Amino acid sequence: MQLVHTPSAMATLAQQWREQGKKIALVPTMGWFHEGHLALMRRARQEADQVVVSLFVNPMQFGPHEDLTAYPRDLQRDTELAAGVGVDVLYAPSVQEMYPAGFQTSVRVARLGKGLCGASRPGHFDGVCTVVMKLLHQSCPHLAIFGEKDFQQLAVIRRMALDLNLPVEIIAHPTVREDSGLALSSRNKYLRPDEMEQARCLYRAIVFAREKARAATCALPAKDLCREIQENIEQYEGCKVDFVAIVENDTLENCEAVNENSRLIMAVTINNKVRLIDNASLLSAELL
Amino acid sequence: MQLVHTPSAMATLAQQWREQGKKIALVPTMGWFHEGHLALMRRARQEADQVVVSLFVNPMQFGPHEDLTAYPRDLQRDTELAAGVGVDVLYAPSVQEMYPAGFQTSVRVARLGKGLCGASRPGHFDGVCTVVMKLLHQSCPHLAIFGEKDFQQLAVIRRMALDLNLPVEIIAHPTVREDSGLALSSRNKYLRPDEMEQARCLYRAIVFAREKARAATCALPAKDLCREIQENIEQYEGCKVDFVAIVENDTLENCEAVNENSRLIMAVTINNKVRLIDNASLLSAELL
Predict the structure, then answer these.
(1) Among the CATH numbers 3.30.70.1140, 3.20.20.140, 3.40.50.2300, 3.30.1300.10, which is that of B187-281?
(2) Looking at beta carbons, which pairs linking A191-195 to residues 24 or more positions away fall under 8 Å?
(3) CB pairs under 8 A between A and B
(4) Structure confidence by residue, pLDDT tens digits, A80-133
(5) Which of A15, A109, A167 sits opposite B104 (nearest CB)?
(6) Does residue A212 carry a pLDDT above 90?
(7) Do the Cβ atoms of A171 and A144 come closer than 8 Å?
(8) Do residue B165 and residue A11 have CB atoms under 8 angstroms apart?
(9) CA distance A197 to chain B (A)
(10) Does B24 touch chain A (CB under 8 A)?
(11) I need a labelling partner for B273 at 20 to 30 A (CA). Which of A72, A281, B87, B113 fits?
(12) CATH says B2-173 is which class?
């Protein structure tokens, strides 16, 4: 596996592959790999000739009081893990190379990026869109793979790709969970063992909501179910809802009543310290 | 010459050319071709194997009270002119194909797009950046050619390409002028013959400013020269300055004193009706 550190080296390599007719896949990440990331990389390995994994903790998508400096980093560990699943290039550019002096351009997806996590984290999705656009132009992939755990991010990027006619296929990969149901996330590293137990409140809320939705014999008002889910979560000490929403799968607009396209999306803060997100379809056949 | 009307047909064609190793040039236009456009097309013809000229009057870059509906259009005439200089594809998509229902993404170059024309036309450069990004993704060119007449547009697009790592070379082509000195523009069509004469105030102001700058024996304060230029323009009846600025060539920031990198940029309204722009380097060897 090759380690690449500059946008120009990455672009040169991608150009060569393109000229050789190779199919390129990109998996954008912020590192501190877990089984969720590795699943995306294995998927990329199946789909393409050349697999690029980008590793960049993107300052532009962190708010001023968020965990940019605390975010876990270990290039050595990540290099071994990526090499282990057959990645061709681990692309880890520096902040200086990605945002040199004079940088001033941004990409915004207006409505999809506004609510849910966008409301709690203003500017977050502008940062995500901008860096993803840069990474796509640098590595020229035929396809890019994103995890469904960050469901709003996936929707925003799909919309950006469609609206700006990006010649890239956006592929979604299902959330990977621990046996306990907790969705894998690099931020789980912030949790002590007892907090890992608390963090299961998100998964339990999903199971609770799906049971409620499936058991309903008539149209279930989404607002009522959201309130019940919030109560379900906040019955556990230290579990505080940031938001709970039931939205249409594609537009992320609030549902009136739970339907086949309804998705539960939520963010919960554990002990006022770690903000976790999770999501699931309520009535479709999607497996958890 | 082939006429292409949909983004998907354009993308398919570009993909085929790429696979055949052809070099592609894009000349983005809003149509109503004049010698300025034709010069860009001839330049593209020299530089590339396949020349695409896009023709799209982009609603997103017009303000609510601007001349979107009045903007001159004649596809038949433009088709003949483009074919005459050896263009391969005239790409004229519809507004519905470019901005389908649900469209919500935009690209912004923050500082460069804010002053000068950006101040008189809020949102204008967001519209320009967004449509250029779309056209580049649709036609996958190796290079794209822009006229220096729209100097701020050129600077904004250069910055966008750099910041977002677009794998496209941005080429600038000098302004083409009538014998009278008037810069060619599709909007000149709005001028009656006597107004064409009035419109020469922009060129006369450039000549005046260059003479002043060249004659100065010590550092010339840009502010003072701007005031003189404005007076020079407004001595002619019906000629009203929108802005006159002397800025650094790359950053478009105001110069304190006139220097080798200074550029005069201005917008003037003729008879409260037609807004014209022009620009020139003040001290470099650049020809008018």
Answers:
(1) 3.30.1300.10
(2) A191/A270, A191/A274, A195/A238, A195/A270, A195/A271, A195/A273, A195/A274
(3) 81
(4) 999 999 999 999 999 999 999 999 999 999 999 999 999 999 999 999 999 999
(5) A109
(6) yes
(7) yes
(8) yes
(9) 40
(10) no
(11) B113
(12) alpha beta
Within 8 A by CB and 6+ apart from B127, the residues are: B58, B59, B60, B61, B62, B106
Distance from CA of A230 to the nearest CA of B (A): 31
Binary contact (A163, B103; C-beta < 8 A):
yes
Q: List the single best residue of B58, B105, B162 to mutate versus A (max A Cβ within 10 A).
A: B105
Give the closest-approach CA distance of B102 to chain A in angstroms.
9
Tell if the pTM clears 0.95, that is, is over it. Answer: yes
Nearest CB among B104, B134, B166 relative to A112 is that of: B104
- For the cut 90, the answer to whether the pLDDT of residue A288 exceeds it is no
A142 — contact with chain B (CB < 8 Å)? no
Q: For B206-217, how does the pLDDT look when each residue is reduced to its tens digit (9 = 90+)?
A: 999 999 999 999
Collapsing DSSP states into helix, strand and coil, what is residue A206? helix
Tokens found for residue A130: 């901008």
The CA-based dihedral angle spanning residues B60, B63, B65, B69, taken in that order and rounded to the nearest 10 degrees: -30
Q: Which residues of B are designated catalytic? A: 37
Q: Which region holds residue B216: left if phi is over 0, alpha if psi is between -120 and 50, else beta?
A: beta
Beta strands A24-29; B89-91: pairing state: unpaired
Q: Which CATH class name applies to A186-281?
A: alpha beta
* Alpha-carbon span B106 to A169, nearest angstrom: 20
The mean pLDDT value for B70-96 works out to 98
Q: What percent of chain A has pLDDT over 70?
A: 100
**Where along chain A do its domains lie?**
2-173, 186-281
> Any CB–CB contact under 8 A between B105 and chain A?
yes
Chain A closest-CA separation from residue B225 CA (Å): 28
Question: DSSP label at A258?
Answer: -
- Compute and round to an integer the Cα radius of gyration of chain A: 19
| Cross-chain Cβ contact A164/B108 below 8 Å | no
Chain B, nearest residue to A250 by Cα: B102
Q: Does B20 touch chain A (CB under 8 A)?
A: no
The residue written with tokens 């002053």 in the block is B115
pLDDT at residue B25 is higher than 90: yes
Whole-angstrom Cα distance, residue B71 to residue A7?
41
Sign (positive or negative) of CA dihedral B108, B111, B112, B116: positive
Angle at B89 between CA B84 and CA B91, to 5 degrees: 115
